[in-house]
Amino acid sequence: MLCYMLVTITVCLAQNSSPIDSRKKLSGIIHDNFADGAKQYKVLKSATPPDSFPRTYNPQTGKSVNSNSGWWCSGFYPGTLLYLYEQTGDQSLYNEAVRMLGLLQKEQYNKGTHDLGFMMYCSFGNANRIKPLPEYKEILLNSAKSLSTRFNPTIGCIKSWDSKNPSDFLVIIDNMMNLELLFEETKATGDSSFYKIAVTHANTTMNNHFRSDYSSYHVLNYDMTTGSVKEKKTAQGYANESAWARGQAWGLYGYTVCYRETKDVRYLQQAQHIAAFILKHPNLPADKIPYWDFNAPDIPNAPRDASAAAIMASALLELSQYTKSKDAREYRDVATTIIQNLSAPAYKAAAGTNGGFILEHSVGHKPANSEVDVPLTYADYYFIEACKRYKEMYK
Ligand code: GLY
């Protein structure tokens, strides 16, 4: 095991240094990422109106873009502040996170979105892990109850998006990320209904959302009455039959969490199959930062998506711990390469720039020409999470 770890580090870092030197070098880079991230998030705080949530920043106009608490990304800013607080001990980051939680808490009753896992678990989940409080537990439970109202037993899924057509039931691969909140609430309360919804959603998605090569569609449209699949398509990817990079990352992360929480080997195998699709894809660049879609027509000139890379790195580090196969080494190698490359000036913003965001060069919604080649809160969140996971694996 130790040998595997050392070999991993050798592959990814400076060719002429020893494995231990390489590990120390990356640990130093990660230490700097936490310190630099803490400084950047103070810039981000000062650029954000006190009643708003940061969303992105336009490097061309120099304008920050903010949101209200109902935007699907509202949990990432407090979540990243909490990760950075844990790593730096800077109390002002914790205080800012807690202030934002006050603005976010009303979303516990929001039944109009499937994104409550992102919004409430990345924020209140981390807050409760760091300093458990009865009010956080209550908010997490109410959030899981609200999310569960979107589950339909005929279809076996949580509804992602509402549709004007009453016979439509739309589910996107991103929804796999909201299951962690449900697993957690069964552990917290003993109420198995949340767990049952999570595994049913994961099973239905495993049956229908994936192609034979284990790439995933973005959007499935189920028939409300029969539960059959009416359409398989995309919204944020290049084409219905393409592999949208962040969607592949959400699936990888989601099934890794499902295996952690259930120990059902089918989820482990699913995560490994998704990892193989990503890592063996001829369009995955050598630096392992994917293009925004694996089938983007203008590769190699297509924009990269740092957010997809960060999610993949965090997921691969976790997945590497669940397998003893030689794949584990590859997962760690690729995750290490991603962290190293996102930490370099090509992706990590210089101090005081980028509106206070840590990473540059993510893609939100390319077909809508929205948030293309910009910083995004979730890129920062999963990047800092990946750094934290690396630190915990190699301490
Ligand atoms: N809908 C979430 C995402 O853009 O990945």
Automatic annotation (TrEMBL):
Family: Belongs to the glycosyl hydrolase 88 family.
Keywords from the UniProt entry: Hydrolase
SUPFAM superfamilies noted in UniProt: Six-hairpin glycosidases
Domain of life, source organism: Bacteria
Name the UniProt record assigns to this protein: Glucuronyl hydrolase
UniProt record, GO biological process: polysaccharide catabolic process
Entry keyword Nucleus: no
Keyword Hydrolase (UniProt): yes
InterPro entries linked: 6-hairpin_glycosidase_sf, 6hp_glycosidase-like_sf, UG_Glycosaminoglycan_Hydrolase
GO MF term (any one): chondroitin hydrolase activity
